[in-house]
Model the fold of this input.
Amino acid sequence: MNLLRTLFRWIAPLVVLGGAVAIFMAMGSQPPPLRKTADGPIALSVKTVAARALAGGLDIEADGVVVPLREVTLAAEVGGRVVEKSELCKAGHFVKKGSVLFRIDPRDYELDVARLERELSQAGLLIEEIDEEISQNAATIDLARQQLDLARKEAARLGGLKADRFISEGEHERSLRDELTATNTLTTLTGQNRVLAKRRNRLQEAQGLAGTMLERSRLDLARTQVVAPVDGVVVEDTVEQDSFVAKGTPLVTVEDTSAAEIRTSLRMDEVARIWGGLREGGNSPLAAHDIPDTPAKVVFRLGDKVFEWDGLLSRQEGRGLDEKTRTLPCRVIVKAPDQLRALDRYGAPMATLPPGSPGSLLRGMFVEVRVQVEAPMPLVSVPQEVVRPSGDLFVVRDGKLVILRPRPFHTGNGIVAFEQGIDGLQAGDRVVASQLSNPREGMLLSEETP
Done:
C-alpha cells in the first residue's frame, strides 16, 4: 500500500507534465511575423536663397539729425534809431540775399558825408593855391639866377679893370656887394620853394585824410541799411521799429538754407572702410584727422513715404571719439537741400513727388545716412534673416547640409556681406532660409520648387 502510494506520488506529476506537453504540441505554433524593410533616409525640403556677388560697393548706415550749415547774427554796425523794419524780418520768414531788413536813421551820417566832401574840396583848392605859389616862385628863381650871373660877370669884369687900375677900389667892392645880394636873393627863393613843396605835401596828406574820413562816413552811411547776407530763414528777431540801437546791438539771426549738414556718428570699423587703402604705405594725401570726401545718401521717412537727397561725407566733427558711444562724430553736407527724390517701395526714384512732400531738408529732421564706399575685396552677400543667431550659415551642396561659420565683413541695408572664398562661402551658394530642428553636417536636404 505504501509502495503504491509512493509510486503514485512520483508517476502522477510526470503523467500530468506529459499530458500538458502533448496538449501544447497538439495546438501547433504560429508562423513568425513578416519583417518590414526599413526605408532609406528622407531628404528634408527647405527654402533657399542664393548668395550673390556684391557689386557697386557698400552702404554704411547710420542715424543722423539735420543741423543748419551756419547761423548768421546781424548786429548794428552804427548807432541810431531804427526808422524801418521789413515785414519779412520776423521769425520763420524766408529772406533773399540782399533784402533790406532794417534802416537806421541816416541823417547824421549824411551830414558827415556832406561836411567831409566840402573839406576834401577845400583841401583841393588849397593844393591848387600852393601850386600857383610854387609856379610863381620858380619864375622868380629863374630871374634871380640870371641876375646872379650878371652880377658875377660884372664883378669879374670890374676885377680885371681894378687890376689895370682903370677903376677905383670902391667901384669893385660895390660890384661884389651886388653879387652877394643876388646870391642871397637866390638862396632865399630856393628855401621858399622847399617850404612850399613841404606845405604842398602837408596839404596832400590832409586831403588824403579827408578822403579816408569821407570813405569811412560813406561806409557808415551804407551801414545804416542792414541787408540779408544769405538766402535763409529768420530764426530770431530782437529789435522792433523805432527802437534805438547802439553799435554792436544784435538785430536778427538768419539761418543759411543754401546748404544743410547732417550730424551723425560712425563706428571705427566703418571709418576704417571709408579710409580704405588711402593710408597704406604712408603716402596718403590726407592729414592725420581728415576724412576723404565720400558720396552719401540722406533718407527721410514720412509715414510710408521715403525721400532721398544726395550728400557728401565731408569732415569729422571735433577731434577724437565720443567717450560715451565710442563713435566718431562726423558731418554730411547736402549742397542742394531742396533737390529731393521720392522713392517707391522698391527703392526706385519716382517720376513726380507725391502730395505732402517736404520742400527741403528742415532743421531737426531725424534721417538715415548711407555712406557709399568701394569694397576693397570681392564680397558675397546674403539676406540678414538667413544668418543663424549663432552666426552660422546653412548651405545646400550636392543635396547635403554644409554648415559654414564665416566672419561678417559688413552688415547693413538688410544684408550681410562676407569675403568671397573665406571660410568656403562662394557666390551662387544656396543658403537655407527655413528653420531646421537638430541640424547636423551632411543631413539630406532638398530645395523647394518656387
Remarks:
- The radius of gyration is 54 Å.
- The longest helix spans residues 107-163.
- The longest strand covers residues 305-316.
